[in-house]
Amino acid sequence: MTTTFISDLHLSADRPDITGLFVQFLRTEARACEALYILGDLFEYWIGDDDNTPFHAQVKRELKALTDSGVPCFFIHGNRDFLVGHQFANETGIVLLPEPTVIDLYGIPTVLLHGDTLCTLDVSYQRFRRIIRHPWLLACTSWMPLSWRRKVATYLRDNSSGSGAEAQSEKTPSQPLSDEQLVKYDATDSAVEALMQDTHTIQMIHGHTHRPGIHTHATGTRIVLGDWYDQGSILDVSATGANLRSEPLLTR
């Protein structure tokens, strides 16, 4: 048996190739895994559980079919879908996890997170994150009419400055980050090692940085999940080790 991890799919109605691969994955490979963890940015953006478009309804049906089949599915919020709430969880059967979350992964203490908090050199984004996730602002957002929230989400994407918080959070839908942004907004070793020490773990799994790979730190191993812009990125972990792989997107 394997435990599977994915992140940064950025699902949207205008990328049916990504959605198609995700649906295929849920209906086939995911049914055989011991558990599925989605480590944030499942959606390009999520403005509230009441935004029940036909596209969102389709994704929820596919997730519900997976959990109904007996496969546990866990979700950690990303910087684009941190408004996913309990209604979504109830409708899909997923379990919302706090960030960070520590699990015993085949005997290895492992910390899971989306990964944006590790990008500590991007001071403007970290400031933006603290503001946008403030409980008072989140409460205000939930009171806004759905039409207003759609306009705000559109405005933020269309008026991105292309750097810092805006580049990571309100970028043009379903477009990869530039090489310059990938380097500038990567996780820092100090943040990675501090979190592993604080959580008493020797393994970390995260997404967000769009730089898939397996890295060795003084405190242990860090596995970075890839995005799904140009291919699917899937991490399978078993008692014998980890396999970070990619799958081709379906033809549009």
From TrEMBL:
Pfam families assigned: Metallophos
Region: Disordered, residue numbers: 159-180
Pathway entry: Glycolipid biosynthesis; lipid IV(A) biosynthesis; lipid IV(A) from (3R)-3-hydroxytetradecanoyl-[acyl-carrier-protein] and UDP-N-acetyl-alpha-D-glucosamine: step 4/6
Keywords assigned: Cell inner membrane, Cell membrane, Hydrolase, Lipid A biosynthesis, Lipid biosynthesis, Lipid metabolism, Manganese, Membrane, Metal-binding
Cofactor field: Mn(2+)
Positions contributing to Mn(2+) 2 binding: D41, N79, H114, H208
Catalytically driven reaction(s): UDP-2-N,3-O-bis[(3R)-3-hydroxytetradecanoyl]-alpha-D-glucosamine + H2O = 2-N,3-O-bis[(3R)-3-hydroxytetradecanoyl]-alpha-D-glucosaminyl 1-phosphate + UMP + 2 H(+)
Gene3D superfamilies attached to this UniProt entry: 3.60.21.10
Membrane topology: Peripheral membrane protein
Chain residues that bind Mn(2+) 1: D8, H10, D41, H210
Enzyme Commission no: 3.6.1.54
Domain Calcineurin-like phosphoesterase: 1-212
GO cellular-component term (any): cytoplasm
Cofactor stoichiometry and binding remark: Binds 2 Mn(2+) ions per subunit in a binuclear metal center.
Localization per record: Cell inner membrane
Top-rank taxon, per record: Bacteria
Signal peptide segment: none
Enzyme's top EC category: hydrolase
Residues annotated for substrate binding in this entry: N79, R80, D122, S160, Q168, K171, H208
InterPro entries: Calcineurin-like_PHP (IPR004843), LpxH-like (IPR043461), Metallo-depent_PP-like (IPR029052), UDP-diacylglucosamine_Hdrlase (IPR010138)
MF annotations from Gene Ontology: manganese ion binding; UDP-2,3-diacylglucosamine hydrolase activity
Any one GO BP annotation for this protein: lipid A biosynthetic process
Family of this protein: Belongs to the LpxH family.
Protein name listed in UniProt: UDP-2,3-diacylglucosamine hydrolase
Gene name of the encoded protein: lpxH
